[in-house]
Amino acid sequence: MLSFDSSLSNALKLSNTTAFWVLKLYYNAEGSSDFIGVSDTHRVDGSDIYYGLVSSWGNYSQSLDFFNFTTSTGNMSVRLINTDKSIKGGRFSDLFSTNNFANRKWELFLNTSQAGTYDTAARMIGTGIISGDIGYDYESVKLTLLDNSSKYHKRLPTNVVTSATYPNAPEKNIEKPIPIAYGDFHAKDNIGTIPSSPKFDYFFTKGKFPAIITNALNEADGYVYAKVDNETMHTLDSDNIYIYNNGHYIACDTSNTALSNPSLKYKGTSWFLFVPMSAESSVSNWVDGSFSTSTTLSEYTGTENRDISVPEVPNLGVVSRVDVIFNYGTIYMTNAEEYSVFGVDALNGGSLDTTVQIQSGDGWDFAQSGHLEIITTPEAGAISVNVKEMGVLVTLAPSKTLTKRIDDLIEHRIYEYDYIEEGDMPSETYTVTTERVVSIPADIDYVYCSGKGRRYGAWIDTINSAVRTNANGDEPDPNYAANDLIENPVYMIEDILRTEMGLDSSTTGADIDIESFDRSGNAQTDGTKGDIAFTFNDAIADIKFAFSQYKFINSKDLINQICKQICSWVWLSGDGKFKIRTLLRPSDTFTADKTIDFNDINFKSISRTKLNTVRNDITVNYNYDYGQDQNLSQVNTTDSTSQGTTVNGNNQTLKLIIDATGTLDSTTATQLADAYKAIFKDRKIVLNFDCVRPLYNDLEIGDIITFDNWNSNLKLYGTAFNSDYFIVQDIAKTPEGCSIKSIKVD
Description:
Largest sheet: 17 strands, mixed
Radius of gyration: 32 Å
Helix content: under 10%
Number of domains: 5
Structural class: mainly beta
Strand content: 35-45%
Number of strands: 52
Number of helices: 8
Low-confidence stretches: 413-439, 470-476
Shape: elongated
Mean pLDDT: 90
């Protein structure tokens, strides 16, 4: 909601108030005095003159797509009188010889005769750029006023590989994007301690993100250089540098790697491939990917063994040796006679080896099965071995296939609208994904790494030299600090606005509505949770996003892509700032931004959203693999009541498929699916009404409203109104009031 000053707010509360707009049309260099002011009648405000040239105001309109989490904001038209001698002794169009208005700033202000200065920031209701499409005749000039989307939004990533900076980059990589990396791709959580000896820590990571090669071979040191981002990463690990080949990530020997965050380098022919093994069900804990689970193999006299096998692996290079590597728990033995794997002795002076070489050279057939076996005799005594994890480690000189075909170098995202205007019979499946309509195939050389992405800047702590506070303005943010890892997707959006789009680079808060971002993404020491925690029904600390944007994409599309995965909208407010609103679940507690007096509105209609907007079978695809270019995991949730035949049922299973490429985390994906189910499983009540007074012109899309003095004879589909909450979906403003379409959210 806009924040009008108290003088204006108090004046608008008076029933006899007449409100008006004044418009500043900037030209040329857009200096403080480089503008022509216009209004519906001649007005003077100090040294500022507003010429009475406006013959008609268009509606200043904002709109959000409730079901796709996108917005369209801030566009309007205005018609000016262009008759002879109407301004400065001539026509308005005569000014074009010295004043260029095209692609310059405009500012619109709401005022009343009772309230002072016209053009204060607290009275601005719209700003943007003037379209270059200016047409006129003898009588009038028509101007189209656009928002600042085209000014602010740009192609991302903004940093590319240039021959000037990287003269030894592969030619195919010149002018290709340096990726943007967010979140935690590093060591897997909740699987126990991952050992570094033997080399399990090379492979047990959450994911790998791409690093574009910037130096094919450095003459001075013989290394290949690559860059994972243009910003310093929270964590890079020299153990976790890979090439991708035929579905496998092959790790470089850490003795041949080095880091200069956010760059990495590698060389040499010593690389490691880890192949997960299979084992019979009684000892599946040996190969379940967790170091916190185990199975004990024991024998007092005789032989005890378990079946294990190694799957087929494509030819990835020249193999020099093959080992089975182990992580052990408790080991007990007296004088054990034999302990072997695939028939190879694993005893070394009475102790067990953690690395057992089972093949030397390139003759190993990977499609192998055998035993892990212990043999003892009564004289030797008992033996028991607790195995936590095991696998095959292949040392090889890989065929270094670095080139990756990028089928969509530029991603332009459009969304499938399944809504039928003349009827509302739904399709069975509604896929919330993207169609990539601009495709520029390109071959680019990448390597991969595992680590942690971008860090918070000083902006998370300080705005305008003061401690950044929460939405209530009374508590500092306890969860995040400068240099912490950014995992919260709300603040990933804010970082994109700041770092990639160049807004608020000095942490002033001039271009970004800090309060709305903290309300959406923050958790407070006073117990107040950010809205995103309610949406995901989880602690904010557990909502973890991680992704690399390594293809060109428009910044608006990237922000919308994140918004879709967190049930949020980002838009340019009428005060010129980016704002965010995160939608709570219907069962959560809403707080109204404004209460509308029913006596101040002209009520038009009650309706429901289309039946084909209902979705009660939700699938979320997540865990994106950048080598394979696909999500590897999915979760699903359904709602039987919504599918059923009761009064609350829709008599149909209606599916929704979401590509959540922003997260690797199963808990986050599961809670996202559940949030979509809670929000989309039912049709929503829609209210259409006109506000007959400008008292409510401080409302914007995304604001939550409720009503006073509701007409008790007017029920919401048979249910009496009871402080119900609605979100403003569409609003069209005039100087006299506004028209609003709102959707019930509680």
